[in-house]
Amino acid sequence: MKVLAVCLNPALDREFVINGFTLNKLNIVPNELNRMTPGGKGVNVAVILSKYNVPTILTGFVGGYVGNVLVSELRKVGPLLTTSFVHIRDETRENIAIEDTLNHTLTEINSEGPFISREAYELFLKRFEVLVQKVKAVVISGSVPRGVPFSSYGELTSIAKKYGKTVFWEARDEIITESIKIAFPDVIKYDMRRSEKILGSYLEHEEEYVSAAKEFIKRGAKLVILSYRTIFDFVATAEGVWKFSPKFEIEHSFLLGAGDTFVSAMILSHLEGKCCLDIARYGYAAAVAKTKYLGKEPPKREDIDKTLELIMVERVE
Amino acid sequence: MNRVTVAEMMTYDMTFVFENETVESVIELLDMSSISGVPVVDSDLKVIGFISEDDIIRACLPSYFNLLQSAAFLPDTNLFISNLKKISKDPIGKYATKPAITVKPTDTLLHVADLIMRKGFKVLPVVDDNGVLLGVLTRLSVIKTAMKRDLVVNGQ
User: Which part of the chain is the Carbohydrate kinase PfkB domain (chain A) (predicted)?
Assistant: First the structure.
């Protein structure tokens, strides 16, 4: 196994396309417009990595009927994805999206998600320590369920670092701020979909992004990626700070899955012996390649290689 | 058909327990995950045993049970219940089958079918050359894989 992907709060994504969706009425969904897919950022990364032929172990918590459905959906991904979840009593999250292409509406119903007891969390930590020794890199990505501390990314990273593993994070500010008090990963990619907050402050100007990125490097990260106005990124290493931009116009409605593709492609590039700025370039090119079409499927390797020519890497410091 | 290997039939799932975990927690796991047994591993992920529902039931019955022709000879079910409560906090390692019978991804369908028939296993841990857990093989997946395969006649 090459990668251990941690998804503490996985989900089952349900998508219903109901044209003319009406409240207070029976809405029938044709089978072909009713889809069920495994979700959660760590799950998405594990699925993408297995599609790039990287043997990956996926761990976290699953529970209840929804959890069992999620695991059976993951079985369909193929032999390169091995699951190793801690089972809990509470139901795994279910995210329901009702899309109406006639009225152009999107109605979402997300369940609150499970509560993880201290005992279940400790069982998970013990299992993580055994699994982490069998891989080269660890990726921890996405939200944390109730009961799991925001500092959990730091706790897991300090265990992974004991065994000399390379650690990637993609998370929002609350998790990163608490977790870096315990341990620093090698690569931090900020999840800024809900808020442009970094280390407790809201950022606006480019200079603020540059200094925030430099701050992370000063504190111990090797590579930091801060997303700026959705399609740009500020990337920092010990050698400097760069701004990444696409050379063509990005279709915003095709952005779904671009962040997870970015992280997966960085891991892929790291496993192939690349370092620092090169892995960020490869990740960004993959994310940009992903925005050329609708859907969750990752881009082909040759499309990523072609897209490397279609991105601009400009040194800003 | 004997060229079908375990790698094609196995479930790529590494649900496992450590031998110091309690009987109670293992019963809880089997119930939550709808499985009938689970590999017991050490801190290096090497399979050191296997615990199944059968092992737990056997641990709660008196040692002379195997000599009886029927459970009707037992005084009452209270004996089973009180024994189950007595062992619930014990480490599972005490009741696991050790060493576990394991298979490798390269083993053939014929080999595992033989194990399943002769020993009556429902689940077999799949391990690598170092005995490290890779997944499990269930009886049903063996049957399902066999169903999907075309017949091979005279090697054709």
Answer: 35-295
Chain A residues with CB-CB distance to B32 below 8 A: 63, 87-89
Beta-bridge partners for B51: B38
Q: Is A87 on the interface with B (CB under 8 A)?
A: yes
Taking contacts as CB-CB distances below 8 angstroms, the residues of chain B near A5 are: none
Domain count, chain B: 1
- Asked if the Cβ–Cβ distance from A68 to B34 is below 8 Å, we say yes
Record the tokens describing residue B137, joined without a space: 């093989």
Q: Is residue A214 part of a domain?
A: yes
Asked if the structure places residue A19 within a domain, the reply is: no
In this predicted complex, what is the ipTM? 0.91
CA pair distance B38, B57, nearest whole angstrom: 15
- Residues B14/B135, Cβ–Cβ less than 8 Å: yes
Q: Which amino acid is at A142?
A: G
- Asked, for residue A53, whether it belongs to a domain, the answer is yes
Report cis status (omega within 30 of 0) of the bond before B99. yes
For residue B156, being part of any structural domain is answered with no
Q: Residue A145 maps to which CATH number? A: 3.40.1190.20
Residues of A with Cβ-Cβ distance to B131 under 8 angstroms: none
Residues in chain B: 156
- Residues of the domain holding A292: 3-7+39-91+113-315
Rounded alpha-carbon distances, angstroms, from residue B113 to A120, B45, B53, B146: 36, 26, 21, 10
Q: Which residues, other chains included, contact A129 with Cβ-Cβ below 8 Å and sequence gap of 6+? A: A159, B43
- Check if the beta carbon of residue A127 is closer than 8 Å to that of residue A133: no
Residue pLDDT, tens place only, A186-211: 999 998 776 778 888 888 899 999 99
**Residue of chain A whose Cα is closest to the Cα of B46:** A130
Which one, of A168, A176, A243, lies nearest residue A216 by Cα? A176
